[in-house]
Structures are given as structure tokens and as C-alpha cells.
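hiii so um. not sure if this is the right channel but i have a protein structure encoded as C-alpha cells and i wanna go backwards to a sequence. like what aa goes where. can anyone help
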């Protein structure tokens, strides 16, 4: 068993993990001492792993990713469950993601894009594409979806960001950990009160749909709905915002692809898929072995933490030739940006809808949008399992 020579908690890894992913794929399994986990990065190995929940369990997902900062540790969790229980809960949660609901949101996304873009370009000055545009639309969207108070935008952004950062807790100081706890408490208190309001007066929102959901006599408890609400907040705000920002950044780094996309709007959906593969907003999944298991001749003991590195799989040249090239005509089928198997991301349709609508608007309204800062100075958020930008200054 090879021990990794890299540390995912180091800034060098977090800023640019791709050279380390190449090292990771040299072996089937690598032991990563700082995280007490086995990392797997080859596409075929991960594809096989995620289809064997009876061996590679999600039961400790929240524990491994958030530790003591799991907002609802006492409730059945969509992330930390396996079939058949997961299948049943997923059916209940899926009632809030009916295609008809997503279709109704398309016009709202277009309005949001137009409104925020108007504000960004009103004075003709450079603006922060990430902070002033890409971050804002998903917050409005998730607020509408949850039936939440849109005046709490800054709280929603902070809560999502801080709770996600719990993956870095092993390298954090007391003050940083305290901020995470404040966000956990804030999100939990807010959504507990909001769910109580929805129980007294239903609305046209996903929390109301969760309250009414029933499958084979099973219903969601309020604690389970609370967990789903916070999960949607984190995934709906951070992941989609990073998808939008990462896509714009990739287009600027590969200008010929930018011109191709603008001149061929029909390629926008595939452009989004290539962005998901090329710079996945979520880079890893957290699993636990139920039994001793062999991968590539290496034996992983039972009860071991296993990190499936989606980002490494998405750059495996055995699956995606020339993976370091951003190519919007690429066959991206099978990419792992939303995971694979039973835990394939439930909100993937919403993220795709938002990104597609946003870039249709951008290419139509500001086709000459360009970077207003050197691309080599663009900074990534410090995280080994989330990929996104701190700032992306744009001009037109």
C-alpha cells in the first residue's frame, strides 16, 4: 500500500490538485495519513466502488465530511444512508424535484440573470463576476425553492460556505471552528422555524412538498426535512455558483472554445457538461468499507474511510483523452461531477438549468465579456473537496 507524498490540507494541493491527481492515479489505492483515509482516483475503480453500496457505504458521509459540525446528526440523512433505506428516502425527497417544478423555475432564472447582469454592467466598470453575479443567482434560486426569506442572502451564503469548510477542520484554529459552529446553529435555527411555518401554512415551495410527501406510507419527519433543507442550501448555493464561475474561467483560459460556444448556442448544454468534468465543483465523495475489500491488489480493511476523488476520475486519460483540455464538443458521458450510482446528485437538474440559462443570457447580452485581471492571479477557495473561485473580475 503506497502512502501519499502529498497532503490535501496543504494550500498547494488545494489551489491546483491536478498534478497530484496524476500521482494518485499511478496506484489503485493511496493511503493519505493526514485524513486517515484511502484515496482512490482511477475512473474504473471509482465507477465500480460507487455501484457497490453493500461494500462501500455512505453511512459515515456526514461524519467524514463535517465531523462534529453535522447540522442534524440525529436524523435519517440522504447523504449518509444506503439502499434500501436510501432508495426510499430519495423517493420521498424527489417529490420536490418534479420536472414540472424545475420547468417553472426557468423563467425565474432568466429574470435573475438579466437583473443581476444589468446591475453589473450599469456603470461600465469592471465587476466581480463571481461575487456580484455567479454567487447571487443560486442564492435567489434556493430561496425561492425553499420558500425562504430572500433578505437573508448574506446569511445563506455565509452558512453554506462555513458548513462546507468543515471538511478542512483538521487544519483549522479555534476561531475558524467557532465560525463554523455559529453557521451550523444559525442554519439549523432558521430552517427549524421556517419548517414550522410551512406546517401551519403550506406554500408553493419544496419544504411544503416535503411535508406532504408520502411513499408507501412513509413520510419525512421534520428533522429529516431540516437536514434536506440545509443540504439543499449548501448544494444549491455553493455548487451551482462554482459551476457558473468555473465555466466562465475555463472559457477565458481556452478562448477558441469561448468563441465556439458563442457562435453555437446549441453547444451550451454540452459546454456545461464539459465544465462539470473539467473543473468539478465537488471533487470528492466519502465512503466507508463494510468488509475487507481488495482494489487493484490492495486490501482495504473493514471500517476504513475511502475518499473517491471525482476530480481525478474526471481527468483520467483512460476515460477522457487529453483531459487537461477544455473541449465543449467532447463526449462527456459518464463524468462524475454529480457522483454516480445510487447517490447521483438529486439537484443535478436544477444546477444544469441554472447554468444553461445563465450562459444563454451572457452570450446574448455581453458576448465580449473578458477578464479584467490576469488569469494566473485568479484564486481558488482553499478546499480539497470543493472547487470554486474567490474572485473573478470581468469587463466588457
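sure thing!! here u go:
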Amino acid at each position: 500500500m503506497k502512502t501519499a507524498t502529498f497532503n490535501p490540507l496543504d494550500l498547494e494541493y488545494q489551489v491546483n490538485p491536478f498534478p497530484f491527481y496524476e500521482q494518485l492515479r499511478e496506484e489503485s489505492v493511496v493511503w493519505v495519513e493526514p485524513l486517515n483515509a484511502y484515496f482512490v482516483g482511477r475512473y474504473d475503480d471509482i465507477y465500480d466502488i460507487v455501484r457497490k453500496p453493500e461494500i462501500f457505504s455512505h453511512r459515515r458521509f456526514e461524519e467524514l465530511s463535517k465531523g462534529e459540525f453535522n447540522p442534524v446528526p440525529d436524523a435519517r440523512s440522504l447523504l449518509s444512508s444506503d439502499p434500501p433505506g436510501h432508495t426510499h428516502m430519495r423517493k420521498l425527497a424527489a417529490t420536490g424535484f418534479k420536472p414540472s417544478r424545475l420547468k417553472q423555475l426557468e423563467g425565474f432564472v432568466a429574470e435573475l440573470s438579466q437583473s443581476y447582469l444589468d446591475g453589473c454592467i450599469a456603470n461600465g466598470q469592471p465587476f466581480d463576476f463571481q461575487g456580484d453575479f455567479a454567487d447571487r443567482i443560486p442564492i435567489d434560486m434556493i430561496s425561492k425553492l425553499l420558500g425562504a426569506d430572500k433578505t437573508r442572502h448574506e446569511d445563506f451564503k455565509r452558512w453554506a460556505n462555513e458548513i462546507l469548510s468543515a471538511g478542512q477542520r483538521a487544519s483549522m484554529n479555534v476561531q475558524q471552528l467557532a465560525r463554523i459552529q455559529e453557521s451550523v446553529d444559525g442554519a439549523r435555527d432558521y430552517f427549524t422555524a421556517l419548517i414550522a411555518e410551512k406546517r401551519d401554512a403550506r406554500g408553493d415551495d419544496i419544504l411544503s412538498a416535503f411535508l406532504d410527501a408520502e411513499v408507501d406510507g412513509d413520510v419525512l419527519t421534520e428533522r429529516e426535512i431540516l437536514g434536506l433543507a440545509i443540504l439543499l442550501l449548501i448544494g444549491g448555493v455553493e455548487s451551482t455558483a462554482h459551476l457558473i464561475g468555473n465555466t466562465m474561467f475555463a472559457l477565458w483560459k481556452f478562448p477558441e472554445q469561448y468563441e465556439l460556444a458563442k457562435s453555437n448556442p446549441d453547444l451550451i448544454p454540452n459546454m456545461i457538461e464539459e465544465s462539470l468534468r473539467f473543473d468539478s465543483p465537488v471533487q470528492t465523495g466519502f465512503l466507508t468499507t463494510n468488509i475487507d475489500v481488495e482494489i487493484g491488489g490492495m486490501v482495504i480493511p473493514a471500517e476504513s474511510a475511502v475518499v473517491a476523488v471525482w476530480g481525478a476520475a474526471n481527468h483520467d486519460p483512460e476515460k477522457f483523452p487529453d483531459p487537461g483540455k477544455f473541449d465543449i464538443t467532447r463526449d462527456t458521458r459518464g463524468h462524475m461531477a454529480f457522483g454516480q450510482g445510487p447517490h447521483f446528485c438529486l439537484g443535478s437538474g436544477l444546477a444544469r438549468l441554472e447554468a444553461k440559462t445563465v450562459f444563454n443570457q451572457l452570450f446574448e447580452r455581453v458576448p465580449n465579456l473578458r477578464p479584467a485581471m490576469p488569469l494566473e492571479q485568479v484564486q481558488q477557495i482553499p478546499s480539497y473537496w470543493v472547487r470554486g473561485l474567490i474572485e473573478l473580475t470581468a469587463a466588457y
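oh and Residues 142 and 236 are 6 Å apart (CA to CA).
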